Inverse folding.
């Protein structure tokens, strides 16, 4: 990972370009990591960012931190969407899945 495009907290912006982190450059260097490990790392970071960026929509955070780490053929186990998936470490309420929300509301979450 490039040492330059690193995150500045608690604003969660890039130290170089000031863009919301991970910026495009940060994503590019992060992609050198093992995909499963990267996804887990980003999931952990998103959970922290969600606490520190309390005013940010979880769906926006999900796109920013996780959507780009999914495998090309990875689908949501609940609704089949390719834009999100259930990732260990991400609470269901932070996963932008309407099907999951409905299942939670009905207390009918598949195991
Ligand atoms: Zn950057
Ligand atoms: Zn879904």
């Amino acid at each position: 990972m490039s040492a330059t495009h690193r995150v500045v907290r608690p604003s969660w912006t890039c130290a170089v370009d000031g863009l919301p982190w991970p910026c495009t450059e940060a994503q590019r260097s992060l992609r050198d990591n093992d995909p499963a490990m990267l996804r887990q790392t980003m999931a952990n970071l998103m959970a922290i960012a969600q606490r520190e960026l309390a005013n940010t929509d979880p769906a926006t955070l999900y796109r920013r931190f996780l959507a780009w780490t999914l495998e090309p053929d990875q689908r949501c186990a609940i609704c089949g969407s390719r834009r999100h998936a259930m990732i260990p470490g991400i609470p269901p309420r932070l996963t932008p899945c309407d099907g999951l929300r409905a299942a939670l509301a009905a207390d009918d979450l598949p195991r």
